[in-house]
Amino acid sequence: MTNVAYTLGLEVPAHIKTWQSLRPQWAQDVEEKLRALLTIAQSFDQGFTEISDNPDLTPQGQHKGLLSLVTKTLGLVTRWIEAAILPLDNRIKGLADVVLRRGAIARPTDPAERIAYELRLAEIRASARALPPTERLAAYLATSDPMVIDAFESAPPIVESFGGKRPFVAPEFRPLVDPDRKLTMVLERARTSDPATAEELELMRELRHLYAITVTGLRKQVLAAVPASHEPMEDPALTTTSGDVLER
User: Fold this and answer.
1) Are 96 and 183 in contact (CB under 8 A)?
2) pLDDT at position 115, please?
3) Are the beta carbons of 113 and 101 closer than 8 angstroms?
4) Predicted confidence (pLDDT) per residue in 136-190, tens digit
5) 0.85 exceeded by pTM
6) Nearest Cα to Cα of residue 33 among 165, 210, 154, 181
7) Are 37 and 4 in contact (CB under 8 A)?
8) Which CA distances in Å does 28 have to 18, 20, 72?
């Protein structure tokens, strides 16, 4: 017996009500997406009960039927992710690009001043690269100097080597500051120049987070319904382009 739809059934009306208040023009789409996910959960519960209570099935037959049900449900969840979260990711990226452009620090236009400015940016970046990652982030978050902000936000990726700690792992290229932190800081500046766009982007990110944690919770419950005696199952959401959109 399983009831993965129970918690989701309690949460969905509350989420719908919240978005009717936050963004009435989005409410219908949010309701459709969440109710579609709830339908997947309810169908899983129904199928699980039918298979478990079927007296004509042997234990092996029940196990096989449950595995098939879980695989089918995970496939439906993956298609839901592709329909609900991936388009939202594209919208977020488009708005984020707009906000980042509008929130960019103004640079000198005079050639001589621009050369001096770029040299100073290089010095700041060199100093920042020498800091441990936590101190580097703290310096970025604490500064209000436009030149320092520009140096951090426009810096090319840095090479991060693991040294002797992980000798068989190749060095990685990482941004000087975390992209999410950078976007958050730019949003703060954009609230002054373009508050409407900044607010819409924040709400989209909040909705995306809601979708991700909701579908992740459902996936975990579905996978947990597989009897422990079975071999680990392949989750379709982890073998498609949608796998990286979930909350781990």
Assistant:
1) yes
2) 95
3) no
4) 999 999 998 999 999 999 999 887 765 556 566 677 788 888 888 888 888 888 7
5) no
6) 210
7) no
8) 12, 8, 27
